[in-house]
Write a structure and sequence with these properties.
- The chain contains twelve helices and 14 strands.
- The protein is of the alpha+beta class and 346 residues long.
C-alpha cells in the first residue's frame, strides 16, 4: 500500500534525508527528516528502506527483508515445520512476530491497545526480550525519520516505551492467530524513568499513515494518566515541534475546556485550579487559554487570573469541540492498576 503525502507534512527540511521512503511492512510512505542509521548498513543515501513492522529491523535490500518477515509469517501456517528452515535462516526470522504482545498490556479499548516496554527489565532477561530491547533502538531510529528536534536514545534502559497497537476490524474476530497477525504498531511515546523536570513524555509519534485519526490524543491521555497515578503534575518535554505544539494544543484545549465546564456552582475558576484538576503545568494551561482567547484580565484578591465559564462554553460551541476524553478508565487492565496501587503504597 502506498500512502500519499500527509497534509501535516512539514516544510522540506534543510538537512538531506538519507532515507527517502520507508516500507513498513506492506505500507510505503515518504520520510520527513534524516536519521542516524549506520552508513555501513544503509549507505549515505537510499531511496527505499525496508522496515519490519514488528521489531523495526531494517534492510536496504528486499530479499533479506522478505526472509525476515515473510518466512516469519509462514511459521504460523499449520503445515510449517521447524525442519523446513536451516538454523542460520531461523536466526534471521523475526522473533518479535511470535510474541503474543510487544510488552506489558496496560490499556485496551475498542481497536487500540497500549503496551509498556521497560528497557531495564528486558536487558536482564534471558528470553526473547533482549531482542525487543534492540527493537526499541530500531524504533528510535525509525522515529527520527519523522522528528526534527529529538535525539535518538540508544540508552533505552533509562526510558519506558509505550507502544500503540491498532487492530483493524477482523471478519473473523474469534481467530486469535489472524488477529495477532493483523495488529500493527502505529505509534508510541517514550518517558524517562527519572525526569528532574517532571516531564511525563520525552518523545511522541504516530506514524504518518495513521495520523489525523485521534490516535495521538490517546497517547497524550495515557501520559497524563501516568502522571496522575504517580501523583506528579507534568507535561511533555520542551521545546515542542511545530506539529507537536499543534497536536498538544488540540488535546489541551479539550481537556481544559471540559474541566472548566465540569466545575459546578461557580461562574469563574482560577488557572491554578484548572492545572490541579487536569494534572497539567500552569504554563501549559496559560498557553492553552490564551490560544482559546478566553483569558480575562481581571483578578480576585488572591491574584489568580480568572476565566469566565460562559466564554469557554461559547468557544466550545463555536469550534464544535468534542469534550469526550480520549482515554477511558475502564480501558486500563486490572493487573496494571493493581501494580500501580502496590507501588504507590510501598
Amino acid at each position: 500500500m502506498v500512502v500519499p503525502p500527509s497534509r501535516d507534512t512539514p516544510p522540506k527540511p534543510i538537512a538531506v534525508r538519507n532515507v527517502k521512503n520507508v516500507a513498513l511492512g506492506d505500507t510505503l510512505f515518504k520520510t520527513w527528516y534524516p536519521s542516524f542509521y549506520p552508513e555501513e548498513l544503509v549507505g549515505r543515501e537510499v531511496d527505499r528502506l525496508y522496515v519490519c513492522q514488528w521489531c523495526f529491523k531494517y534492510s536496504k535490500e528486499l530479499i533479506p527483508f522478505l526472509a525476515h518477515v515473510v518466512l516469519s509469517s509462514s511459521r504460523g501456517h499449520p503445515n510449517w515445520k521447524a525442519s523446513d528452515t536451516t538454523d542460520s535462516l531461523q536466526k534471521k526470522l523475526c522473533q518479535a512476530k511470535e510474541e503474543s504482545s510487544p510488552g506489558r498490556l496496560i490499556y485496551s479499548k475498542d481497536q487500540c491497545s497500549i503496551f509498556e516496554v521497560d528497557g531495564e527489565e528486558h536487558k536482564a532477561s534471558n528470553s526473547l526480550l533482549p531482542q525487543l530491547l534492540k527493537a526499541q533502538v530500531n524504533l528510535s531510529l525509525f522515529a527520527k525519520l519523522f522528528l526534527d528536534n529529538k535525539s535518538v536514545f540508544f540508552d533505552v534502559a533509562s526510558f519506558n516505551y509505550y507502544l500503540l497497537v491498532h487492530r483493524p476490524p477482523s471478519p473473523n474476530p474469534d481467530n486469535d492467530a489472524q488477529q495477532q497477525q493483523q495488529q500493527q504498531i502505529v505509534g508510541f511515546f517514550s518517558k524517562e524513568k527519572m525526569s528532574w523536570d517532571d516531564n511525563n513524555l520525552a518523545c511522541i509519534l504516530v506514524f504518518p499513515p495513521w495520523q489525523r485519526k485521534g490516535l495521538g490524543k490517546i497517547l497524550m491521555g495515557i501520559s497524563y494518566e501516568l502522571s496522575r497515578r504517580e501523583g506528579r503534575i507534568g507535561g511533555p518535554e520542551k521545546p515542542l515541534s511545530e506539529l507537536g505544539r499543534k497536536g498538544y494544543l488540540g488535546y489541551w484545549e479539550a481537556r481544559v475546556a471540559g474541566t472548566i465546564l465540569g466545575i459546578r456552582a461557580k461562574t469563574t475558576v482560577s488557572v491554578d485550579q484548572i492545572a490541579a484538576e487536569c494534572w497539567m503545568l500552569v504554563d501549559d494551561v496559560m498557553v492553552t487559554l490564551k490560544e482559546m482567547g478566553v483569558l480575562e484580565l481581571r483578578k480576585k484578591g488572591s491574584g489568580n487570573v480568572m476565566i469566565n465559564k460562559v466564554a469557554v462554553r461559547n468557544w466550545v460551541a463555536s469550534k464544535g469541540i468534542d469534550l469526550k476524553p480520549p482515554v477511558h478508565e475502564d480501558g486500563f487492565t486490572q493487573e496494571w492498576l493493581l501494580q500501580i496501587s502496590r507501588e504507590s503504597d510501598s
